[in-house]
Amino acid sequence: MNLNLIEYSDELVVLGLDGRMDANGLEMVEMPLSTMTAKKDVILDMCKVEYMASLGIRKLLQLAKDAKRNSKCFVILNPQSAVLGVLKLANLDTIIGIFTSKEDARKYIENSKKA
């Protein structure tokens, strides 16, 4: 699995994942993802994630909790339909914001800061 930096600012980082969210894939990206969610609001673009294992679900939930604990936001952008189905089946869409446009994800993050 690859983790790509798409956009970086003082408050927000947009990261892209590419590959399979399984044990092998997560091992490669776990540390940088955790580091970013502790410091910045994160939009995680998952349009190139083709597979999600239960370990991936658990990691996304952990990232969202870590972000919240640090007064940051963690949202998901553009998951493929199969991955979105897994996220919905696990009810992650009720815990983590999932968006199809970067603008909507940004608005969600801005509004959560006002609340």
Topology overview:
Blueprint: E1 2-8, E2 12-21, H1 23-39, E3 41-52, H2 54-69, E4 74-77, H3 81-89, E5 97-99, H4 102-114
Parallel strand pairs: 2-3, 3-4, 4-5
Antiparallel strand pairs: 1-2
Helix pairs in contact: 1-2
What features would you describe in this structure?
48% of the residues lie in helices and 31% in strands. The chain has 115 residues and is of the alpha/beta class. A five-stranded mixed beta sheet has the order 1-2-3-4-5, sandwiched between helices.
Task: Label this structure with key terms.
115 residues, alpha/beta
Low-pLDDT segments, ≥5 res: none
Number of strands: 5
Q: Residue share in helices?
A: 40-55%
Distance between termini? Answer: 35 Å
Shape from CA axes? globular
Percent range for β-strand residues: 25-35%
Compressed to H and E, one letter per element, the order equals: EEHEHEHEH
Order of strands in the sheet with most strands? 1-2-3-4-5
- Main beta sheet, described? 5 strands, mixed
What integer value in Å does the Rg equal? 13 Å
Helices, by number, come to 4
Structural class: alpha/beta
| Average pLDDT score | 94
What does this entry show, briefly?
The protein is of the alpha/beta class.
